[in-house]
Design goal:
Blueprint lengths: L1 H15 E2 L2 E2 L12 H6 L5 H13 L14 H14 L5 H13 L11 H19 L8 E2 L5 E2 H6 L16 H7 L3 H17 L2 H15 L8 E2 L17 E2 L16 H4 L18 H22 L7 H15 L1 E2 L2 E2 H8 L6 H8 L26 H4 L10
Antiparallel strand pairs: 1-2, 3-4, 5-6, 7-8
């Protein structure tokens, strides 16, 4: 009997120790935010006002459209779920509206569209469902009215391999995209993949998703190298990646202007690395697409940190080095953060998230208030000046 107890204990410890970090098998804590953290979020201020706007919007029972490349459905669903938790789970009308909004989302994209559109929204939606599931307020038997009235359980059972759009022959499924690319598409897909695994309690898929995220952050012992995109430029890649591949998503530690760069997306501007040029040579889309990749990476790492992983230490603090690059790359006094904030209102969230996810105190300059209304939150997350406001314990410490 004693041997059996020792064996059971040993097997249990194998399930909860990963790389020296206490992690349960498909950790119950693999959620975007804890209830205690939600209760710490401020009840006043600009960020709260924007979160309240999203919550009130969902109470009008709008029709989500995941076929829209600029969809905010994911951030709206997640913001509403967090807002419900922050209010002590007392707003029954908001809970009902949030569930209805989520259930109407699947199937609102055209089969001939690009898979990026629904993937941009699904990450936040899945993270919201995880919060409601943890609170005992989600039914796997709920029907999806825009997807033939199949149940949520049926939808989530194969979501990672479900074809979400045929416009791009290479990236059509969440799993395939997460494996294939280190571009913003891959970052978007990996947020959904982690959430799918956590919702299903799928240990093998969860481990695979974590390995893909670690590879993206620069751990070359995990997963396999990604395939290059048409935008790839070798001058930005300081890994010496093999032909047709890119070894990681974040530039390796070397102290140059490529240290911490988002390798694939910085090349979207069509220019090469230049050590002495403004923004190290990056221009246009090469200054904004990296921040979209960062947004979904931040969301993914928030889930994994709550699952027990020390994400801040991964690959020579790759998370911090990525955030630092957006500050180091500049033209005069205009950093990438400032450039993006002036170009698109959603990027006013970024320095809030960058500061909080790296555990710093405004190392990237004093963040600005987010824009009002739907401009106040990202494609996948709630307003940054709500989540990372002074007094909030979300991802702190």
């Amino acid at each position: 009997m004693r041997k059996l107890i020792r064996l059971t204990l040993s097997l249990s410890l194998v399930g909860i120790l990963i790389g020296g970090v206490a992690v349960a098998s498909v950790p119950q804590g693999a959620s975007y935010i804890t209830p205690a953290e939600a209760l710490s979020l401020p009840k006043t201020g600009n960020g709260f006002t924007n979160a309240s706007w999203a919550a009130s919007y969902l109470k009008t029972y709008p029709a989500p459209n995941l076929g829209d490349v600029n969809t905010r459905a994911g951030s709206e669903a997640l913001t509403a779920a967090v807002f419900w938790l922050a209010g002590g789970k007392s707003d029954a009308a908001l809970l009902s509206a949030t569930r209805a909004f989520i259930l109407k989302a699947p199937g609102t994209w055209p089969s001939g569209g690009q898979a990026l559109n629904p993937m941009r929204g699904l990450g936040g939606i899945l993270a919201a469902v995880k919060l409601l599931t943890d609170a005992g307020q989600w039914s796997s038997g709920a029907k999806l009215p825009n997807l033939g009235n199949i149940t949520w359980a049926a939808f989530i059972s194969n979501l990672e391999t479900r074809n979400l759009g045929t416009l791009n022959s290479r990236w059509q499924t969440i799993l395939g995209t997460a494996i294939d690319t280190a571009s913003n598409w891959g970052s978007v897909a990996r947020f959904s993949l982690v959430s799918i695994a956590a919702l299903r309690g799928d240990q093998a898929l969860f481990d695979r998703a974590v390995g893909l995220v670690q590879r993206y952050m620069g751990d070359l012992t995990k997963a396999a190298a990604f395939n290059r995109t048409a935008s790839y430029r070798a001058s930005w890649d300081n890994y010496g990646s093999p032909a047709g591949k890119v070894n990681a998503g974040i530039g390796r530690l070397d102290g140059t202007g490529r240290d911490g760069v988002v390798i694939e997306d910085v090349a979207r501007g069509g220019t090469d690395y230049c050590a002495t040029c403004p923004y190290f040579g990056a221009t246009g889309s090469g200054l904004t697409y990296p921040l979209e990749a960062a947004e979904y990476t931040w969301a993914t790492l928030a889930v994994l940190r709550h699952a027990g992983f020390d994400v801040r230490s991964w690959t020579s603090t790759a998370l911090k080095r990525m955030n630092d690059w957006f500050q180091r790359a500049h033209s005069g006094s205009t950093t990438v953060y400032l450039y993006a904030e002036s170009a698109f209102s959603i990027y006013k969230n970024d320095r809030w998230y960058a500061n909080r996810l790296t555990g710093g105190t405004s190392p990237y300059g004093a963040p600005v208030p987010t824009a009002s209304g739907p401009g106040g939150y990202l494609r996948s997350q709630p307003p940054g000046d709500w989540m990372a406001a002074p007094g909030s314990t979300w991802m702190s410490g």
